[in-house]
């Protein structure tokens, strides 16, 4: 399971640079409504650029399970992020590692959430109409109270599943966010960009350095 994920990657060179700086995962967005959407042919080149050096996570929004499985099979992607309103039954039909995004500005149905068939949770500040990449920040200190069983517990809730913090993270605040919320991992897209889908090398490098520092401090 990754600690640092650079999401919304649209170019092989950005993926390779992020991994070279220490990112353990990169995210490729297959949601056509996103400015970071990547077609299959371009995604294949991104996957090749990181080879086996990092996890590649395919990001999907309300896509049919069969389509997700078929595309990931063609591209060699073994991890998916479900960032829409996918019902549990659909998630169960995807025989891959699954991370479910929770739109943290909404009131969660905790019993249903905790029963969701996934391997990890991502707490995202964006509302459902945006499906991530908004750059909105969360109230990090309150996550364990608002999402008992999901957040807290040094990166895993009472279910034992890891959770990833997203939303409004930048090189300037990621260290503080990790220390305050104590997630298992962090996810960033717009916070390290010069424009949607174009990663800024200096921001990527700084984000990863500060995230690593935050994880070191959070463990002390």
From TrEMBL:
Q: Which GO terms describe its molecular function?
A: phosphoribosylanthranilate isomerase activity
* Domain named N-(5'phosphoribosyl) anthranilate isomerase (PRAI): residues: 4-209
InterPro entries to which the protein is assigned, alphabetical: Aldolase_TIM (IPR013785), PRAI_dom (IPR001240), RibuloseP-bd_barrel (IPR011060), TrpF_fam (IPR044643)
Q: In which pathway does it act?
A: Amino-acid biosynthesis; L-tryptophan biosynthesis; L-tryptophan from chorismate: step 3/5
Asked if the record carries the keyword Hydrolase, the reply is no
Q: What class of enzyme is it?
A: isomerase
Q: Which keywords describe this protein according to UniProt?
A: Amino-acid biosynthesis, Aromatic amino acid biosynthesis, Isomerase, Tryptophan biosynthesis
Q: State whether keyword Amino-acid biosynthesis applies.
A: yes
- What EC number(s) does the entry state? 5.3.1.24
Q: Which reaction does it catalyse?
A: N-(5-phospho-beta-D-ribosyl)anthranilate = 1-(2-carboxyphenylamino)-1-deoxy-D-ribulose 5-phosphate
| Pfam annotation, one family | PRAI
Biological process per Gene Ontology, one example term: L-tryptophan biosynthetic process
What top-level branch of life does the organism fall under?
A: Bacteria
UniProt lists the family membership as follows: Belongs to the TrpF family.
- The entry's protein name is N-(5'-phosphoribosyl)anthranilate isomerase
Q: What organism is recorded for this protein? A: uncultured delta proteobacterium Rifle_16ft_4_minimus_184
